Amino acid sequence: MIIRILGEGQYDITDDQLDELNKPDSALQSAADADDEAAFHTALNSLLDAVRRLGTPLPDNTITPSDLVLPDQDTSLRQVQALLSDEGLIPG
Asked: What value does the mean pLDDT of the chain take?
């Protein structure tokens, strides 16, 4: 799966690694549901850090469609609330 972090780049994530992304994604969903700005930013940064840590960055000159697009770390709680589904940002 190719995950793009807006303004940063794309990362190749294996299916096995998706399970590890679900924990920070769930925390982000909970923080957004509770309208908790501090917990939201902590969870978003945790999710983005996990993608960076687990994923293999794709070269900038590689043009590949993204399976999933994540907001950058400066995205507001309100903006992310508009993007969230019942499954969070990471489906599954």
From this structure: 88
**E strand or H helix at 75:** none
Going by pLDDT thresholds of 50, 70 and 90, the confidence category of residue 72 is very high
Check whether 41 has a pLDDT greater than 60.
yes
Interatomic CA distance for residues 65 and 5, integer angstroms = 13
Write out the E strands in the chain: 2-5, 9-12, 56-57, 68-70
22-31 as b/e, with b when 16 or more CB fall inside 10 Å? bebbebbbeb
Report the C-alpha dihedral over residues 61, 65, 66, 67, rounded to 10 degrees: -150
What pLDDT was estimated at residue 3? 96
